[in-house]
Design a protein that fits this description.
Strand content: 15-25%
Number of helices: 10
Pfam families: HTH_1 (PF00126), LysR_substrate (PF03466)
Order of helices and strands: HHHEEHEHEHEEEHEHEHEEEEH
CATH superfamily of the largest domain: Periplasmic binding protein-like II
Number of domains: 3
Keywords: DNA-binding, Transcription, Transcription regulation
Domain HTH lysR-type: 1-58
Shape: globular
Organism: Pseudobutyrivibrio ruminis
GO molecular function: DNA binding; DNA-binding transcription factor activity
CATH topology of the largest domain: D-Maltodextrin-Binding Protein, domain 2
Radius of gyration: 23 Å
Structural class: alpha/beta
Number of strands: 13
Largest sheet: 6 strands, mixed
Length: 291
């Protein structure tokens, strides 16, 4: 199974049309059809269901697409790493980021690092701990930012200089907006928005034995999406301070939880990772700047 064939497969899966994929790949349609037929024969499975004007993936095709995406990304990353070995002014850096206001420290570090390595190109992937762990474990990412303490058996890490503060996003005309802080009693009976990870982790620990009294209205991986639903009066968003615009004209306010709930965040890497030269230099830079 060749990487080129997997690229062909992914293009057809994306376009859902053989002609469009062939044009995108700059190959003839018969050549593309032949490659895909050979792939199906090699795997012994039908990957596509062909209709009059479109092509759909079978269940086996969906499985291959998920695996092929990782393989192609890995091949691209390996190629870029070898190209950058002799680049003394830069290279490729792959970062996976959780949602946090404290990322400003990372952004400042990258900005300072680029002054020494102007040809640095960095690639950002966003996600929760589960998503980012999977990618860094596969070697698709060099560094990840977690909002919970990394597993020391798998990762080494550095703690960010400051922590995130939990609170509630509230419509400015809501009675709760008049409070300076939000107590657990204030949340009972409210329709709440939160990420699944935080709801079953930080919020559950904070609420303790009364967690079952809280009502999760809906879960969001991105706080911004949750704030839109809050603006429309569908519920209240539990999130970090500074992630949502709560300026005077925003229509929303942030109130911290009481007792205070904070999250430390960490930049981590696989303890068995083999770094490229630029990643090694970046790690040294991060250790120095965060200290």
């Amino acid at each position: 199974m060749e990487i080129r064939t997997l690229r062909y497969f992914l293009a057809v899966a994306r376009e859902e049309n053989m002609s469009s994929a062939a044009e995108l790949l700059h190959v003839t349609q018969p050549t593309l059809s032949k490659q895909l037929k050979s792939l199906e024969e090699e795997l012994g499975k039908k990957l596509f269901t062909r209709h009059s004007f479109s092509i759909k993936l079978t269940e086996e095709g969906i499985l291959l697409r998920n695996r092929a995406e990782d393989l192609v990304r890995m091949a691209d990353k390996i190629e870029q790493e070898f190209v950058s070995l002799d680049d003394i002014n830069g290279g490729e850096l792959y970062l996976g980021l959780a949602e946090s206001y404290q990322l400003r420290y990372l952004a400042k570090s990258i900005k300072a690092f680029k002054e020494s390595y102007p040809n640095l190109h960095y690639h950002i992937t966003s996600g929760d701990t589960e998503q980012l762990s999977e990618k860094v474990d596969k070697g698709l990412l060099d560094f990840v930012v977690f909002v919970e303490q990394p597993d020391v058996r798998k990762y080494e890490y550095i703690e960010f200089p400051r922590a995130d503060i939990w609170g509630l996003i509230i419509p400015e005309n809501d009675p709760l907006a008049k409070k300076k802080a939000i107590l657990l009693d204030d949340l009972i009976g409210l329709p709440l928005f939160c990420s699944d990870q935080a709801w079953n982790g930080d919020i559950k620990n904070w609420a303790g034995s009364r967690f079952s009294e809280l009502q999760l209205e809906g879960s969001f991986r991105l706080s911004y999406n949750g704030s839109i639903f809050t603006m429309e009066g569908l519920g209240y968003l539990l999130t970090y301070k500074h992630l949502i615009n709560t300026s005077k004209d925003s229509g929303l306010v942030f109130r911290p939880l009481s007792p205070k709930l904070e999250n430390k965040i960490y930049i981590a890497w696989n303890r068995y990772q083999t770094f490229t030269p630029i990643a090694e230099r970046f790690l040294s830079h991060i250790k120095e700047s965060f200290s």
